[in-house]
Amino acid sequence: MSDISPHNFPFRHLLGIGGLSPSEITEILDLSDEYVAQNRQVDKKRSILRGRTQINLFFETSTRTRTSFELAGKRLGADVINMTATASAIKKGETLIDTAATLNAMHPDALVVRHPHSGAVALLSQKMDCSVINAGDGSHEHPTQALLDALTIRRRLGRLHGLTVAICGDILHSRVARSNIMLLNIMGAHVRAIAPPTLLPGTMDRMGVEVFHDMTEGLRDVDIVMMLRLQNERMNGAYVPSTREYYHFFGLDQSKLAKAKPEALIMHPGPMNRGVEIDSELADDINRSVIREQVEMGVAVRMAVLDLISRQTSNQPPVGPDGGGA
Question: Residue 108: how many CA atoms within 13 Å on its side-chain side?
Answer without folding.
Answer: 25
